[in-house]
Design a protein that fits this description.
By secondary structure, the protein is of the alpha+beta class. Among the domains are: about 5-245, Phosphatase 2c, domain 1 (4-Layer Sandwich), CATH 3.60.40.10; about 255-375, no CATH class. The chain has helices at about 50-65, 70-85, 135-140, 190-195, 200-205, 210-225, 250-305, 305-325, 325-350, 355-365, 375-405, 410-425, 430-470, 470-490, 490-510, 520-525, 590-600, 605-610, 645-655; strands at about 5-15, 25-30, 35-40, 95-105, 105-115, 115-120, 125-130, 170-175, 175-180, 185-190, 235-240, 565-570, 580. Strands 2, 3, 4, 5, 8 and 9 form a 6-stranded antiparallel sheet that branches. Strands 1-11-10-6-7 form a 5-stranded antiparallel sheet. A hairpin with a 2-residue loop joins strand 6 and strand 7. The protein is rod-shaped. About 35% of the residues are buried.
């Protein structure tokens, strides 16, 4: 677009002079919005690689990809060319002087290294020329030599910067320069400006009507001097016959934009200043807060409040991160990690995970040596308490394993030991141990009860067999033993059943007693000289069966039954006495006990009669005593002996047997 509305004409000449190879090179490219002209002077002696051409190709390739007048990008283009020459320097070091000019068809900007030059002419006057990067130019800048002396000074080829040098390249980039219609520009190498003076250049630019005419004139001037040695020379003339005219209002728009940007920057600057003050205040607040966090955390540590200490150290670490304070961040991180071990240990302890809690406490104890704020005694106390809980837990696990395997006695013992250890270590879940202990005891009681029940049932069956075989005394013994076991395991129905079977056996052993005679008959019997049977003294050395009421310590005198009673042998050993069995079948145990208490005493005559009785191992019972005897007579309650006394005598006989 800009190119179509402007007119730039370029013409150049480049010759080897008196040399065989021409090391100079010139090229340019014109695009829609930008144009670029590049001239280079090869400084090496390599005959295969043209260093000037290689450098110019690199610059133009970069420019075509991103056309620009940016100072930064122009430097980058020259540095890319510099790197390219260094990379291709295989036989000799490739090096060149280079000048590049870019334009947007309104303004120009140039950049260069070495001693290739740009001359600008306007209305027959030399407006400016580019500066060499040489020692001679440095002397001219210091005003040690005149500017005209640069063209023939001995140090004009002593370059300070050139493409391909070993050091990093620092090219010169000019500010933008505004063009006008009719401006002329000349790019040339040292081969031309050494042989053509500035006055001659000015004359050629003033007389020339076209760039071709200008470069031809310059070449003629150079060759007309007929120097013995003519170096490679290149001259490129660019005539800006018409530049691109920009919109006049664009300038004001740009100014307005600049003013707006300045205003925004001012506002942003004020805001930035406010933010800086605010950030400084926040930073001071964070520093003070960090100091307070450290002090408070250490106080909480000494008091044993690890949860609050962890919170303080965490806040201090966050403040250190915001302040980018690495030292305090590491300090708070170490303290926070140590306190975290204790806090995690307490949490695991409360959850009942005592082994892991113990591991946390032990690690904290090791690291507490470098932190004096943590009490070592407190850590050791926690470790001992946790070990005690671990011991209780192991005992509980041992009990659980034995309980699962059916070893209820071993489980009970383990739970008892765990309960004792829990009492001494303040174990929080002692009620769980008690529940497990009760469960084991219930299982153990159920097994014991079942075993005893089987034993009692076996004894009961043995008694039933003996009843069938009419061996009533052995049957009674089996029933009594079974009754004791049933009563021990609280099977009351079975206890009553055994009592009924014992009574039935006693009934089988002792036939029913005939009815008592009339009172007259009793008197007649008494006048007939009936003998009163001696009172039977019970054997009180043997205890009564469990669950039965204790037997009376005295035995009532049995009632007279027509002068005859049934003798039941009690024991088979010599010296044993026979037992007189009450066959009345009436009365109850309470009546028997009352009768034994009231009628169990003997008179002196009864004692004498007992001593005169035969000692053959049996005792016969004579006729009943007359009614109303004060010492050996039997009351009405004596005539109703209870079935409980009969059962007791049967048990005594069974034990004697």
């Amino acid at each position: 677009m800009r190119r179509d509305n402007s007119e730039f004409v370029t013409s150049f000449v480049s010759e080897a002079g008196t040399f065989v190879n021409n090391k100079d090179f010139f090229a340019f490219v014109e695009m829609d919005d930008k144009a670029c002209w590049v001239i280079a002077d090869g400084l090496d002696t390599d005959r295969e690689i043209a260093s000037a051409e290689l450098a110019i190709q690199t610059v133009l390739n970069q420019f075509q990809q991103k056309p620009t007048m940016s100072r930064f990008r122009l430097k980058r283009y020259l540095r890319r060319a510099h790197e390219r020459l260094k990379m291709d320097s295989t036989r000799v070091r490739l090096k060149a002087s280079l000048t590049v000019v870019v334009t947007d068809y309104t303004r120009i900007r140039w950049a260069g290294v070495g001693n290739t030059r740009l001359y600008h002419f306007r209305q027959g006057r030399l407006t400016f020329k580019s500066k060499d990067l040489s020692l001679a130019q440095q002397l001219a800048n210091e005003e040690k030599i005149s500017d005209e002396a640069l063209d023939y000074h001995d140090e004009r080829h002593n370059l300070l910067q050139y493409v391909g040098q070993p050091e990093p390249l620092e090219p010169y980039v000019s500010p933008k320069f505004r063009l006008e219609d009719g401006d002329a520009m000349l790019l040339c190498t040292s081969g031309l400006w050494e042989g053509v003076s500035r006055v001659e250049m000015l004359d050629a630019a003033e007389e020339a009507q076209s760039p071709e005419q200008m470069v031809d004139t310059l070449e003629d001037v150079l060759l007309s001097k007929q120097a013995k040695v003519i170096r490679n020379y290149t001259a490129a003339a660019i005539f800006a016959n018409k530049i691109f005219k920009e919109d006049p209002q664009k300038k004001w728009r740009i100014i307005r934009r600049i003013l707006i940007m300045v205003l925004l920057f001012a506002l942003l600057g004020g805001g930035a200043w406010y933010m800086m003050v605010r950030q400084a205040a926040n930073k001071a607040e964070l520093v003070q807060g960090m100091i307070d966090n450290r002090q408070n955390g250490e106080v909480y540590l000494r008091d044993g409040n690890y949860d609050q200490a962890f919170k303080e150290f965490s806040d201090g670490r966050n403040a250190a991160i915001r302040l980018k304070d690495r030292v305090n961040k590491q300090l708070f991180t170490n303290k926070q990690r140590l306190v975290q071990l204790v806090v995690d240990g307490d949490k695991l302890f409360k959850e009942g995970n005592y082994p892991k809690a113990l591991s946390m406490y032990e690690i904290a104890l090791k690291e507490s040596d470098s932190h004096k704020e943590i009490s070592r005694a407190d850590m050791e106390e926690r470790i001992e308490r946790t070990k005690a809980h671990v011991k209780v837990l192991n005992m509980i696990k041992e009990g659980d394993m034995k309980f699962q395997s059916g070893n209820y006695l071993g489980a009970q013992n383990a739970y008892i030991r765990a309960s004792k250890a829990a009492a001494t270590s303040s174990y929080e879940k002692a009620d769980v141990i008690q529940e497990k202990l009760l469960a084991a005891q219930e299982k153990l009681y159920g097994i014991t009860k079942g075993t005893k029940q089987l034993e009692a049932e076996k004894l009961e069956k043995d008694g039933d067999k003996q009843m069938t075989a009419q061996d009533y005394l052995v049957a009674i013994e089996s029933y009594v033993s079974a009754q004791e076991i049933y009563q021990e395991i609280n099977m009351l129905e079975k206890v009553l059943g055994m009592e009924r079977k014992i009574s039935k056996a006693l009934d089988k052993m002792e036939p029913p007693v005939p009815p008592a005679p009339a009172p007259g008959a009793a008197d007649a019997g008494a006048s007939g000289g009936a003998v009163v049977p001696p009172a039977v003294q019970p054997n009180t050395s043997l205890p009564a069966p469990n669950g039965n009421p204790p037997a009376s310590t005295s035995q009532p005198t049995p009632p007279s039954v027509n002068g005859t009673n049934v003798n039941v042998p009690v024991g088979g050993n010599e010296g044993s006495t026979s037992r007189t069995t009450d066959t009345t079948g009436t009365g109850n145990k309470a009546a028997g006990e009352q009768a034994g208490n009231t009628g169990g005493e003997r008179t002196q005559s009864e004692t004498q009669r007992d001593s005169e009785s035969p000692t053959s191992g049996s005792r016969s019972v004579g006729e009943s005593e007359p009614t109303g005897s004060s010492s050996g007579s039997q009351s009405t309650g004596d005539q109703a002996a209870s079935s409980g006394n009969r059962m007791e005598r049967a048990q005594q006989g069974g034990r004697e047997r």
